[in-house]
Amino acid sequence: MMRRPNRLASSVVLCPSLILLTAALASAQSGLIWPRPPAEPMVGLQSVMSRLRGFEVAVQGPTEGALPRVQRLRRPSGVDFDSAGRLLISDSRQGLLLRIDPDLGVVLVFGSATQPSLRTPLGIATHADGTIYVADAGLRQVVAFDGQGEVTGVYGSGNLDEPTDVALSPDGERLYVVDTRADRIAVFDRGDRR
Q: Which H or E run includes 155?
């Protein structure tokens, strides 16, 4: 007779692990590091960002209508730095791309509430010339922005099912797009934008 695995015993083993993980995350504000000493730390939490207090909100692109509410991140989905070292964050719930300039205390919002240029932005990649590429699963394309937040082109319109991430080739001439629903990586030449 074959014995069935004891599910209770498995969950008892997992519970202490979950408790330790929860306790470690709860102490994140005190500088969580991994692995714990005496091993040499490889990962350390410096800070957690969820609210955008102390930053002025500026809107780039079409500014007709109400300014988008950007007091906190709702669903941050992608992060990168632009060529000037400013932090870029895609927020898929708000359909926004934010550029945070801590030196100037400004959050730049690409697009506006009345004329959105993004629907479900996820992955971000930046080119050395300042172009910012955003994989947008809702629009089913990659949107290219210049440094002022203006849309300069799109890639894969009508050819992508669910673009979730984007990367540039080492020479910066090709875009590699993760098309999750289609189980493929689509490749576009940078010059082939619409």
A: strand 151-155
